[in-house]
Automatic annotation (TrEMBL):
EC number: 2.4.1.-
Naturally occurring in which organism (per UniProt): Juglans regia (English walnut)
CDD domains: GT1_Gtf-like
Gene Ontology molecular function, alphabetical: UDP-glucosyltransferase activity
Top-level taxon of the source organism: Eukaryota
Listed name of the protein: Glycosyltransferase
Length: 499
């Protein structure tokens, strides 16, 4: 289990830097200014009387929840460095989605569309991986050509390359330009360490050995004594190790130690053992999160009345259910979850993307549509989690959702699907003790009932909430506050990128 006392140890207070950074004085204040919002005109860019001297290229991974947090970070940096140009490179679809939803957009960031690698007339198939693999085959040529064009258009050479950490080729581009490379890792520190240590893991376990080593514990890596081989993300020792995505992650693990600095959406006090291991691997490792506390949130509205509905319920009594913007669970699991909610009588708010028709038991919505349950196509998630009536978050356990739960001190019921989500579930349940996984890894009625009753109706659930508050939310607030570790690391990051 997570050592609460160790977690509460605060980073040593550092002397404030003289760099001109608009940091706030309250832990909950954000880094971005709120007076002006340029979201309606994301491509506006001013030269500020030709005083712009630096030009930062930002290379985004255009799938999943990658581009949005990178843009949020760039917004914060750009706001503190108004005379630095930031060119943001992603696909047209990604840029349209990301910039239209970005809050407090500053005017020294300009988006550029890179080719997505899809052939002309491409028809979307049932394989969600195919567009990503076609995009990866187009890299790095698509980024190189557009980056060169942007530098020529701006009349200023690239002075720094920021990128999603996935892009090892960004390090090569930066080396060719003789400029710093600062990758940003959008997931958690545990998965990052595993990818950097892939060679160690393969040397110890061998290749493609999941079946024979599934129960083996990764105790040969510091901080992983509660993690097993079955919790590893695909692409390390099982799955298709030769797929474009697996190769990208392998190349990333080899390249990141050469980066000028690696930034991450986390905070030093979250897991000092893992943090120290990562510091020993990189030239500079900068925790600058959690973003729900350190950066301005994306634009949120409550057009579906979620908060008003939550006002009608008792403290810590409601289950909030959301599986992110990408994942849709199979019908039999949705049915099982619905049956569990009905059997327990627990009130719920369910953010359900897509068409809900025919995916739940007949009559379920009608039977629960009064004060017991509410379905919405979208919810202001951070505001929902912070509401007093929410007692548990039923989640796919993506890293952004984990951090939002920590910031709101809400326990989790974890149903991971892919990527680092299984690993996150293991950390949340077995290391930190602030959530539970679903028995057997998939929703059944009995398993969901057990998880709901444990987190919402038992003494153990109450202790989870207390631990989430004392051992995670409070240290997170301190890290994000004045002279906190994440604030100081943000100053360092700005200096590296804009110097």
């Amino acid at each position: 289990m997570h050592d609460c006392h160790r977690t509460l140890i605060c980073a040593e207070t550092q002397t404030k830097s003289s760099t001109q950074i608009a940091l706030c004085t309250s832990p909950l204040n954000k880094l971005l200014p709120t007076e002006d919002n340029h979201c309606n005109n994301p491509q506006s860019m001013e030269d500020n009387n030709n005083e712009v001297q630096k030009h930062v290229a930002v290379l985004a991974f255009p799938f999943g929840s990658h581009a949005a947090p990178l843009l949020s970070l760039v917004n914060a940096i750009a706001a503190t460095a108004p005379f630095v140009k930031f060119s943001f490179f992603s696909t047209a679809v990604s840029n349209h989605s990301t910039f239209s939803c970005s809050a407090n957009q500053v005017n020294n960031i300009k988006p550029y569309d890179v080719p997505d690698g899809l052939p002309e007339g491409y028809v979307v198939t049932e394989n969600p991986i195919e567009p990503m693999e076609l995009f990866l085959k187009a890299t790095p040529g698509n980024f190189r050509s557009v980056t060169e064009a942007a530098a020529a258009e701006a009349g200023s050479k690239i002075s720094c390359v920021m990128s999603d950490a996935f892009f090892a080729f960004a390090g090569k581009m930066a080396k060719e330009m003789d400029v710093p490379w600062v990758p940003f890792w959008t997931a958690g520190p545990h998965s990052l360490l595993l990818h950097v240590d892939t060679e160690v893991i393969r040397h110890t376990l061998g290749y493609t050995v999941r079946d024979s080593h599934e129960d083996k514990i990764l105790d040969f890596i510091p901080g992983f004594s509660a993690v097993g081989v079955a919790d590893l993300p695909e692409g390390i020792v099982f799955g298709n190790l030769e797929s474009p995505f697996s190769k990208m992650l392998y190349d990333m693990g080899l390249a990141l130690p050469q980066a000028t600095a690696v930034a991450i959406n986390s905070f030093e006090e979250l897991d000092p053992v893992i943090g120290n291991e990562l510091k020993s691997r990189f030239q500079k490792f900068l925790n600058i999160g959690p973003f729900p506390l350190t950066l301005s949130p994306p634009f949120t509205s409550d057009e579906h009345g979620c908060l008003h509905w939550l006002d009608m319920h008792k403290t810590a009594s409601v289950a909030y259910i959301s599986f992110g913007r990408v994942i849709t669970l199979p019908p039999h699991e949705l049915t099982a979850m619905a049956e569990a909610l009905e059997a327990t009588g627990i009130p719920f708010l369910w953010s359900f993307r897509g068409n809900i028709e025919g995916k739940l038991p007949e009559g379920f919505m009608e039977r629960t549509s009064s004060s017991r349950g509410k379905f919405v196509p979208w919810a202001p998630q951070m505001q929902v989690l912070e509401h007093r009536s929410v007692g548990v978050f039923v989640t796919h356990c993506g890293w952004n959702s984990v951090l939002e739960s920590i910031a709101a001190r809400v326990p989790m019921i974890c149903r991971p699907v892919f990527g680092d989500q299984k690993l996150n579930r293991r950390i949340v349940e077995s290391v930190w003790g602030i959530g539970v996984g679903i028995e057997g890894g998939v929703f059944t009625k009995d398993g969901a009932v057990k998880a709901l009753e444990l987190t919402l109706l038992s003494e153990q659930g109450k202790k989870m909430r207390e631990k989430a508050e004392a051992c995670f939310k409070r240290p997170a607030l301190k890290a994000a506050g004045p002279d906190g570790s994440s604030r100081e690391n943000f100053k360092t990051l700005v200096e590296l990128i804009t110097k």
